[in-house]
Prior knowledge:
Elements: E1 2-7, E2 12-19, E3 23-31, H1 33-36, H2 44-66, E4 75-81, H3 85-102, E5 106-110, H4 111-117, E6 130-135, E7 140-147, E8 150-156, H5 162-172, H6 179-187, H7 212-225, H8 231-264, E9 268-272, H9 279-291, E10 295-297, H10 308-320
Amino acid sequence: MRILGIETSCxxxxxxxxxxxxxxxxxxxxxxxxxxxxxxxxxxxxxSRDHVRKTIPLIKExxxxxxxxxxxxxxxxxTAGPGLVGAxxxxxxxGRSLAYGWDLPAVPVHHMEGHLLAPMLEDKVPEFPFVALLxxxxxxxxxxxxxxxxxxxxxxxxxxxxxxxxxxxxxxxxLDYPGGPALAKxxxxxxxxxxxxxxxxxxxxxxxxxxxxxxxxxxxxxxxxCKELSQAEQAQxxxxxxxxxxxxxxxxxxxKCKRALVQENLNRLVIAGGVSANTSLREKLAITTxxxxxxxxxxxxxxxxxxxxxxxxxxxxxxxxGTLDELTFKAQPRWSLDSLPPVK
Length: 344
């Protein structure tokens, strides 16, 4: 069985073809970073327009790369939510229209289920059950996973997601959009221990997250420490603050992951989403799971951010279970992950 996957939930257009036996046959990703950089963040209307321009050409390229025609496909999967409603509608309408025109099943996919299943694209995959940390610019959540569609939400961010806090703090440090990767790079030059920032909500029970206060603390530190400094002194102070901020986020995520694994009596951890590409986070979680006698799984860096391959894989699992869209489809900008039906 073979399926086309379309991802347009935010500012990246991802297209891929996944084959049940061969794996990923072809994939392309177009990033809109250059489009939104001047605005310091994603402009929803511009994102939607760029998806309109790029989706069909990328689909043609992926079919050509895989040396396939639409007649060689068994379905079309597309992200139906959550995300920016305009961007979602582009992918939904194109995906549903192509499925109708090609006489193929149309499969709506939950964006976060795509991220959660992205590690399944690798050679070494986690066995069920496991705890998943989904961490990106829009979401930070811990989920118990007993099977595809068998999800129990353990905790989530009550305000800013971790990736959002990274981007906002990066902006305070004068870094360009997208700020998360730039902040991580700056942190490599930081002096460990010079500054100490809080590990929010780790001193109380529960598995929810909060990163807005940490972002505010970092902003206060920047204003206090960077007065009347030379250019070189300011550069080093910024790097030290970036290191302290990143370490606070990483420690917070690791503490909550360990707490979730112990609570659920599990030792397998999956991390996915854009922030899962962060090297410090991966190293910390590898140590955390090893101490529990377990292991951490994650997708390769190119599949940590939004991409079509994860949507194609999740769509194939849903297609096999009979999850299909009618001619009337809808985008769901808000969509609870634990509301999905299990795949039998």
